[in-house]
Design brief:
Elements lengths: L12 H23 L10 E6 L5 E5 L12 H13 L8 E3 L2 H4 L13 E3 H11 L2 H12 L2 H15 L21 H14 L11 E3 L4 E3 L3 H6 L3 E9 L3 E10 L2 E10 L2 H18 L19 E4 L13 E4 L23 H8 L3 H9 L1 H7 L8 H23 L7 H11 L40 E8 L2 H14 L1 H4 L3 E6 L4 E8 L1 H13 L5 E3 L3
Antiparallel strand pairs: 1-2, 1-9, 3-4, 5-6, 7-8, 8-9, 10-11, 12-14, 12-15, 13-14
Helix pairs in contact: 2-5, 4-5, 5-6, 13-14
Length: 538
Amino acid sequence: MAVITQVNPASGGGTCTRFLRAAAVFLIAAFVLALQPHQAAAAPYAAMVIDSRTGEVLHSRNADTRLHPASLTKMMTLYIAFEAVRNGEITLETKVKISRNAAAEPPSKLGLRSGQRIAFRYLIRAAAVKSANDAATAIGETLSGSEAAFARRMNRTAKALGMSRTTFKNAHGLTASGHMSTARDMTTLGRHLLYDYPEYYNLFSRRTTNAGVREVPNTNRRLLASYRGADGIKTGYTRAAGSNLVASAKRGNERIIATVFGGKSSTARNAKVAELLDLGFRRAPSRAALRKPRRPAYQGAGVVVADAGDSGSSEGAAGKTIRVSGQVNTSLRPKTRPGRAESPVLVAALEEALQTPPAEAAEDTARTAPQAEQIENVQTVSAEGAVQGDAIRNSIAVALAEAEAEPAPPAQAATATVIAAVQQVPFTGLRPVARPANLALANASPEPEPVVVTRLSTSGGRYWGVNVGLYTSRYQAEKVLLRTALSELETLDGSLRKVAKTRRGFEANFLGMSQDQAELACRRLNARNVTCKPIGPS
């Protein structure tokens, strides 16, 4: 028998309602949590700090652990691009056609379209500053034909650089199976970028740059703006890698390179890198001899990699790199003209006769009579050649007969025989025309007057310079000069930084430049909103 109990709304109804509402909220929350993706575990942390001048390790933690490098990969892509330009594989102005594969790369990207043509220099800028994946892929495909072939070249170059625990699978650094590196290897790559291609290093310190299709900001601009002396190098981020960064900073004579893998955010990563750079400057000596890393052998066009699976190789053997030389080992002899036979060569016989010692001349003369019969076997080239050959044979026979009848002195026997034979050969060719008697000769240009040097000049015509502003203190002017020199190495390299004190303040000047250099430097600096005006000779 069922018992039905009526609930009094005034007493127990409120409790039941609250219970049902709580249960509903719990079920909804559980359902929402089930729909959310699982949070990825924090990426492993690794760090490395070195003195860039000597390569000395100042700090390391998990430096040899293989981790995801993310867009730090583009440092290798750029290194190979710089190598290709230096070795003439491509020029900065070469127009590159963007493939469908490159255009389809996910962000970060420049937004290139399939079939679009763009100068190679803009692809380099976009990869270095914007960290554009489509630009990196386009660089690889342009230099090696495909991204897979370019990855093989990246691995060859990594091996040559000593990056023993790095394997690349693509040009941009997006997560791929087996695409791994270490903090130590990426620090090594950053140091080689700095010293192997210093003419391009200013790219990494630009806050913004013109990438051909638009102006793009630097992904590392926050650290460049906040840390004193920072001038590069490259950031990277993926979920698997976390926030990565290879950074470099210079203060005075000291330069430190610090690498961080696995930052929880870009802000936390930058803070850690700043901490490691400070540690490096504290531990590095103020003075140290510069020992640049050795640049590896060129790994570009003309390098063939033998497959380890070829016949005759042992199982599991590593591939062997073979450099193909362009040197010609054999030179093919040109074919004779059709219808003509090879003409006789008498020069060797003449030289041999002329070089015969006097003591042997008489004996050779006695043996030359039977040799006259062998001359009949000489074949001539044409009708004219046949006549000339008969004359030579007759002349030599007469000379030999005369030599037997009246022997010449031992010192002149062989020489007289050959000369007589040659002189009696009738000439059938064209004789040179005599010079006209009334030939007018052109007057030779007069010798230049001697120049008396009274003072040696070491300026080499570099009397120009540029002024980059007027400042209230010498320290501020020197700071601007250093920052400007680092950002514009291409035109200011070799110039003299000088602070001139005036009644109005301290002028920051670069001196020792030609007029063209000064004007070019100001155009480039003005394009980046940096005050600059040329200074002519006074």
